[in-house]
Amino acid sequence: MIDKKLLATAHELAEIAGEIARSYFRKNKIDMSLKNAKYLVTEADLKIENELRKYLNLTYPDHSILGEEYGINSKNSEYLWVIDPIDGTTSFICGKPTFCTLIALLYKNKPILGLIDQPINKERWVGEGGKISKFNDVECHNNLQGSGLLRLNCTTPMMFSANQRKIFELVQSIVDISCYGGDGYAYGLMASGHVDIIMEADLQFYDVAALIPV
Is 11 exposed, middle or buried (0-12, 13-18, 19+ CB in 10 A)? Predict the structure, then answer.
């Protein structure tokens, strides 16, 4: 069971991130750049991660932190917080409320707590190791019973290599519905039973750490 203070800290991190994200969302003037000549990053990404790091350093000064924008701050702790300040930056820039903040806590390299938070729609999925995940404080369930149509989600087929694209198209040919976009948000939808299969490629650890417990 997760310590109540750790859980409360994760929720407070999501609240801080959400307040900042809402202040930038659908603003026509927002500074952005390309990271590694490939990935979009905005001033909102940087501010969110910076503020979450400040909060964690005050609350748990001995814990390590890994973030998408500022990398690893290792303190040789058994606890590691993993932050993706805005997962789905392209959606965020385009004014689509399908981006999210991803927050994970690892203990001895195992993800034990994960949050997927969408601050515009005020949707939050929380996963604790060994417990049923919750959506807005209510237990949620995926669609493992296979009822209804088989639904496939992919952020974009452009992420696949030529060989990966062939596999994706093979799976796509046997499902009933294919939809695109969503990034980490789609995994929350999967946890609530609205998506059955997600196929992605080239994800980084900060993209998936919070998704594992959920």
Answer: middle
**Matching residue, tokens 């196929």:** 199
The dihedrals phi and psi of 132, each to the nearest 5 degrees, come to -70, 135
Residue 153 CA to residue 135 CA, distance in Å, equals 19
Listed in sequence order, the DSSP H helices in the chain are 4-24, 43-59, 89-93, 162-172, 184-191, 205-208
151: its two tokens: 């639904």
CA dihedral sign, ordered 111, 207, 37, 29? negative
Rounded Cα gap, residues 158 and 153, in angstroms: 13
Confidence tier at 199 by pLDDT (50, 70, 90): very high
Predicted confidence at residue 143, as pLDDT, reads: 81
Angstrom distance (rounded) from CA 25 to CA 125: 21
User: And the tokens for 43?
Assistant: 């001033």
Q: Report CA torsion sign: 128, 129, 132, 133.
A: positive
Q: Provide the residue type at 192 as one letter.
A: S
**Other CB atoms closer than 10 Å to residue 197's CB: what's the count?**
16
